[in-house]
Amino acid sequence: MLEIKCPYCGNRSQNEFAYGGDATVKRPELNSVISDQEWDEFVYYRKNPRGNHLELWHHVSGCRQWFKVFRNTATHEIIQTMEMKENP
Amino acid sequence: MHQEFRISSGGFIDRSKEISFIFNGKKYYGYRGDTLASALLANGIHLIGRSFKYHRPRGIFAAGVEDANGKVQLYKDNITEPNVNVTEVELVEGLRIESQNCWPSVDFDVGGINNFFSRFFPAGFYYKTFMWPKSFWYHVYEPFIRKAAGMGKAPLDPDPDRYEHQYEHCDILVVGSGPSGIASALSAAKNGARVILAEDKSRFGGSLLTDNVTIGNKNGDEWVEDSIAELESMPNVTVRKRSQVFGYYDHNMLVMFERCKDHLKNPAPYTPRQRLWYIRAKHVIISTGSIERPLIFANNDRPGIMLANSAREYLKVYGVLTGKNPIVFTNNDTAYETAIEFKAKGINTIILDTRKSSNAGVVQEAKNLGIEIKFNHGIANTSGYKKVNSATIGELNNTKDGYKNLQTLPCDSIFVSGNWTPTVHLASQSGNKLKYEVETDTFLPHQSRQKETVIGSANGSFTLKESLADGFKKGFQISDEITKNSKELSVPLSYEKDFRSHDKFWCMPLPNNKNHKRFVDFQNDVAVSDIQLAVREGFRSIEHVKRYTTLGMATDQGKTSNLNGLQLVSDLEKKIVPEVGHTTFRPPYTSVTIGTLIGREVGKNYQATRKSPMHEWHEKNNAVFVDAGLWLRPRYYNRGEETLHEASIREALNVRQNVGICDVTSLGKIDIKGKDSAEFLNRVYTNAFLKLPVGKARYGVMLREDGMVFDDGTTTRISENHFHMTTTTAQAANVLSHLEYYLQVVWPELDVNVVSTTEQWAGMAIAGPNSRALLKKLFPHDDVSNEGFPFMGFKEFKFKNITARVFRISFSGELAFEVNVMSDYGEEMWNEIMLLGEDLGIQPYGTEALSTLRIEMGHVAGSEIDGRTIAYDLSLEGMLSQKKDFIGKRSLTRKAFAEKDREKIVGVVPLDKKTSIPEGSYLVENAKASFPNPKLGHVSASCWSVEYDNPFSLAIIKDGKNRKGEKLFAVSPLKNIVIPVEIISQHYVDPEGKRVRS
């Protein structure tokens, strides 16, 4: 079980959090005209990297804030956690 | 009572406390402090059970968790537990054990015939034999194999015991309380670190309980006692015995189970049987010691053959002689100590040593004591069916692949030692890359991935001096990084005997022209010949050899067999072990009860139970409850002899005819505030919300980005920048997370706050033609007329000093109002409504009637919004705004979503107007078509229409738009029912929606 540092609450066990996927995916702007391909990329396609991955987590059984976790998917090392407005 | 093999003094047992137990129907006695294994051995019992495949007699082979043979069915206080290891159960009054894996008895086992046909049972036997004919697998082969090969009997009753979970944090977790473990715990604790010391056995000390050593000026066991007492007195230290750390997970999370109850004579009520500890440690010191390895020789599995160090443990700890005429068979120095200890009790042994000589001090000591030693000798074979009674021994030839001469030696036991295997399981689980050390033929920890340090013999330090020095040093260094106290202890002087070398020879040749089994893995009956066959058949990866032969796959997980198996494969392939590699060490290290893993989260405690503020009223009024997620909701209110069906019809009919009240507290409620709230809702919902007037509610549908309908509900504009959203009961938590995601991640520029208010409001729906009259009585000074309070209106009324939020919304399809008051006033309000509604014919109604009402109205709910349907499928396409963008809209242009013959919701009635259609039934054109019969759609919800007094169902069906009037069949293969049906409109009652607006 990972230990994740919520930027607002500090170190907490993984079972307080929900995983939210790739944090670098950006939702297309509302009302923008985009191809099927672009939309599918946003909705369905995700990379599954072995190594460093910037991802979203939700402190769902805590402060209910979404934030970013920079994590190595092979070793589970958490390099950094940060608020949504920050970047590694 | 006389225990033939118990010596009169010595050991850590209490001879004044005699305890009886029953083994296979016969009564025996042991002492307090015994394990079942030591008590059985004290009575001369070695034969415990039968092996898995050949049903060969097997006996106790070791003294700890590494024992692979001593599995029994345990009974105590009418509770039974299978596959219990006799070496791990402490003796208490009231234990009854029975042998497993044998029929009719362990002494005469019919399955033993397998042994005579063993050449027909080679590695991969099951894969090779039971493949044909295919149909035989389920009906013939599998039931037979299960019965023949099954271990113990699983208990049929619920587990009456209580199990607990505990979370703990510490600076340093020390696993194992041998010399290095205690040394490091002392050193770290004295330097101010918060330490947990965990010991699996019921006594601290590990090898110090059996070895003749001194530390400082104390004997080994005295040093243990004093050190543990000192540790226990320190406030920064937690010391636990009977506690097995069995798993090492990420971020230094370890799990440990503590046996709290089974060893107690009179446990206090509510004592948990076992406790699972989740320990998050800053650093872990692994001092788990090492396990003795067997030697491999023909018929090396007979009862009476055991590990040499285990024989010494039974003698030193339990005062039990495991043999009175033993042979010690070794390839190293350590087993000599066993012979010396037996000699001290007047038992003469013969030592067979595969080496040509040894100059270790302990060997000289044995010589001086007059113990007979035969160097360069091996055991070629043994005999004795239920217990070993002789060994055929011989001098090894120069190439060590045969014997110069053979002779037979009578014996009653053989103590074997094939050197030591460090217990590296936890280190490996944590990600430590092991390295192979050719010198000692062992895998040792090498590169740590997490903060873990391995010390003592687990790290290949096999002398006490090294282990103590390493323990004190590492304990200090690691603690000092955390505490910076710089308080270092000096290492006490120690004395131990001189042990030196071992022979790399461990697998004895067979006597000429003989084909005996030489077992590597006892519990799974994997012999040398099986591994040879696997390699001959082309299996190369050690992981494949393992699975093909089942080597190391038994409940002991190969603690004594893995390394021998590896060495064998290496020899056969002419490789060295590191190239072959090792199989993966996975948690748990030892068997863990399911009860411990689950802890208190059983039955109703599995999840929280949520109750509405009116719950007590429902209970008092004979409500029968149903689980709705975590909520308990009244399903119906029982009157007299009514069935569920009758009660739900009565309640639903009363709504249609008079007025009913339903507890709707469980609906999700979300309070939304901020100047961009309307804009936000406009993006979340498929329909327009920007211009929703203050004081009005609107039904809304929200999608996921993939276009599927996510949830629906009504949202009310309380004031310009304040909205009250409702969700379905099931999706309440998900909708809140969804909103938070868009506000925090996607559109952080929006000024909106959302918070769940589900539990802050008690909700009650008042539905039926008399509901307005009731509302008028409730709020006599307010305008509740159709004009003053129209459909989808919202008002705040005062009742006494309670503020009530009243919404004119309807799920039942009748004229209806929903009253929300603060939770604390819920029951008061409910009572008032019941009182005032009495002469209007009010009755409470439950979820069953609620379903009936919504189904015959054609309103969709969770059974239709199942994550696989788009708005069109649910006839909600009118809710999709053409003028604005919203979450999921772009997906709706996907080709499949625009197909003309897409699934669509319809109504279904049986032609006979009598037969209810089971939910989940398939709709087909031809009921007699051969399988697979093309499925047109499925029945999502069924009810008994109270309006028409016949069954009615909703279904989602291919091209539902054009099927009205078609005659189809509803089939339920599960219930073997075929029902001719007609497809009609989903809106069975009041299709124009007049009633809600009346």
Would you spell out the secondary-structure blueprint of this structure?
The complex is a heterodimer of chains A (88) and B (998).
Chain A: E1 3-6, E2 10-13, E3 18-22, H1 36-43, E4 52-58, E5 66-72, E6 78-82
Antiparallel strand pairs in A: 1-2, 3-4, 4-5, 5-6
Chain B: E1 14-23, E2 26-32, H1 36-42, E3 47-50, E4 57-59, E5 71-76, E6 79-85, E7 95-99, H2 113-116, H3 125-129, H4 136-149, E8 163-175, H5 179-190, E9 195-198, E10 214-215, E11 218-219, H6 220-233, E12 237-240, E13 243-249, E14 253-259, E15 274-286, E16 290-292, E17 305-307, H7 308-318, E18 326-330, H8 335-344, E19 350-353, H9 361-368, E20 372-375, E21 377-383, E22 390-396, E23 403-410, E24 413-417, E25 420-422, H10 425-429, E26 433-437, E27 442-447, E28 452-454, H11 464-483, E29 494-495, E30 519-521, E31 526-527, H12 528-536, H13 542-549, H14 562-572, H15 577-580, H16 594-598, H17 615-620, E32 623-628, E33 631-637, H18 644-657, E34 659-663, E35 668-673, H19 677-684, E36 697-703, E37 709-719, E38 722-727, H20 732-746, E39 753-756, E40 761-767, H21 771-778, E41 794-799, E42 802-807, E43 816-822, H22 826-837, E44 842-844, H23 847-857, E45 903-910, E46 922-924, E47 937-945, E48 950-958, E49 967-972, E50 977-984
Parallel strand pairs in B: 1-7, 8-9, 8-15, 9-12, 15-28, 17-24, 18-19, 18-24, 19-20, 34-44
Antiparallel strand pairs in B: 1-2, 3-4, 5-6, 5-7, 10-11, 10-29, 13-14, 14-15, 16-25, 21-22, 22-23, 26-27, 30-31, 32-33, 34-40, 35-38, 35-39, 36-37, 37-38, 40-43, 41-42, 42-43, 45-48, 45-50, 46-47, 46-49, 47-48, 49-50
Helix pairs in contact in B: 5-6, 5-11, 7-8, 8-9, 12-14, 18-23
